Give the backbone structure.
Amino acid sequence: MRIVVASTPDAVAAEAARLVLDRVRQRPDLVLGLATGLTMVPFYRALLVRKAREHVSFDGLRIFALDEYRGGRPEQPGSCRGFLERHVLQQLDVPSGQIHLLDGLAPDAEAECARYEELMARTGGIDVQILGIGGNGHIGFNEPGSSLESRTRLAPLSQATRQANARQWGGDPQAVPSEALTMGIGTILSARTCLLLAFGAGKAAAVQSAIEGPVTASVPASALQRHSDTVFLLDEEAAARLSRRE
């Protein structure tokens, strides 16, 4: 596990963008897992700016979304697909056939999750997985109590998560779906590299527990301690409770 601390969210986003572009240069057919949430907005902005400035092609990239709300329609701004299309996918030169998204409207959620797992396996697995962290320590939509070996599945969302994501659903927590399709913790740990971004004092306790606490299902992000190549990219506020930075 490596910890990178920068002064501001924009500086963290710039470093994350640099790491991703370096990997794309090394492997143009990289398999990249993308996350959603407000933490990702400055990251995707930095990625697009740097990509254009440095003339890096993404036409060989394969992309997998981390999760999707159950019942989330693509045209809804709060849906994961809507978020990704608005903030990054529409501006990338990735052929549509190389972009893979979970279908929150699939009539059989279990079958959809199995399809997604199989597709990731056929593609060779995720090379770089982008992650955020919830205030309660969740990664993806793996809430506290999720199995550390879980695979892509339909998962219930806590009221805290619905409250935190309400801004993207018109400000009403009750408008946020109560379930989501998500890569499981085991699926996430199968990625060759994980880059977790966190900004602000509201994430400091979760970051400390994930990095310095015990590995426990009550803090899903703590499972990253078991991963062979994880980088935590933090601003000063998110890193404020850490006793070590390395």
